[in-house]
Structure formats: C-alpha cells, structure tokens
Amino acid sequence: AYPYLRSVSSTWDKESPKYLNQKQITISQFVQALKQKTGKEISLPTGTQGAWIRVLGRTDGNRVEKVMIGDHIFTGRQIREAFQLSSSDFTIHINANSVLFRTRGYGHGVGMSQWGANLMAKQGKKMTEIIDHYYQDVEIVSWNESFS
C-alpha cells in the first residue's frame, strides 16, 4: 500500500551466488508441507501429471501472485513460505513423483536489495542514488529538517 514500496529492476542481483536456486521434493512431501503450513487438505487427481498445478498470475515485479493446486488457490507468498523457497519469483516443474521449484532472486522483491545496493556502491553510486533507485519518489532530508 505504500507508494515507495514497489518492485524495481535490480540487475546487479544476478551477480549474487544466491540468485538462482532450485529445490526438489517428492509429491507426498509437497502435499504434506502445504497442508502443514496452510491447513488445507490437497487431493491430487491421478494420471494428470502436472495438470493439477498452475500459476494463475504474476505481480508487476514478476513474482508469483496466485497458484492453483488441485481445487485450492494459494498466494505466491504462501508457497514460498511452505517450501522455504528463497524467492516468490519461481517456476514449478512436475514429473512422475517429484516437484521441482526453480527460483530467481532472494527475498520478497520489494525495497532495497542488499546485493544490488552493495554493487551499486562499488560502481561509485552515491547513497542518495541508491536510495532513489530502490525507493522511487521519496525525498531525502536531514534529520533536523524533518522536525522543523
């Protein structure tokens, strides 16, 4: 709801050793973890490999917004938390008996990227330039000015 908390491009993040990640679990572990985290019982149809799961939408920052699993809809955040994924920018791949998550980035995708800010600083960007990039349309003032 805050206008300065928006996803912005942070191409520097691709240099992070944590930028790309993957996690593979069995389908039974998948169903169990989802139930444990959300309290929803998931029934999966047989013989429909992968058809029981669909990403329904993505945010402006390309994070998963909604996912349909069986007959339930979950947020990308719920999936990220249930499976301890490094990011909600993920893809899901299903094979006969496992689920593979592939993630890009690390974190929630809103606000300042620590990795990006560090590399911007190493490139000679000033603190104000870094803040202006990650928190657009903000005004930086000195502490004394803000209370005058």
Write a structural description.
- The structure is a single chain.
- The protein has 148 residues and is α+β, with helices and mostly antiparallel strands.
- It is 27% helix and 24% strand.
- Strands 1-6-5 form a three-stranded antiparallel sheet.
- Helix 1 (27-38) packs across helix 2 (76-82).
- It starts with 19 loop residues before the first strand and ends with a helix.
- The model has no long low-confidence stretch (mean pLDDT 87).
Sum up the structure in keywords.
148 residues; elongated; 27% helix; three-stranded antiparallel β-sheet; alpha+beta; 5 helices
Write the layout of secondary structure elements.
Blueprint: E1 20-26, H1 27-38, E2 53-58, E3 64-69, E4 72-75, H2 76-82, E5 90-94, E6 98-104, H3 114-122, H4 127-134, H5 143-146
Antiparallel strand pairs: 1-6, 2-3, 3-4, 5-6
Q: Can I get a quick summary?
A:
This protein has 148 residues and is an alpha+beta fold. The chain is built from five helices and six strands, in the order βαβββαββααα. It has helices spanning 27-38, 76-82, 114-122, 127-134, 143-146; strands spanning 20-26, 53-58, 64-69, 72-75, 90-94, 98-104.
As laid out across the biggest beta sheet, the strand order is 1-6-5
Q: Distance between the terminal alpha carbons, to the nearest Å? A: 27 Å
Strand proportion? 15-25%
Q: How many extended strands?
A: 6
Silhouette: elongated
Radius of gyration over C-alpha positions, nearest whole angstrom: 19 Å
Largest sheet: 3 strands, antiparallel
Order of helices and strands: EHEEEHEEHHH
Helix content: 25-40%
Point out poorly predicted stretches: none
Q: Number of helical segments?
A: 5
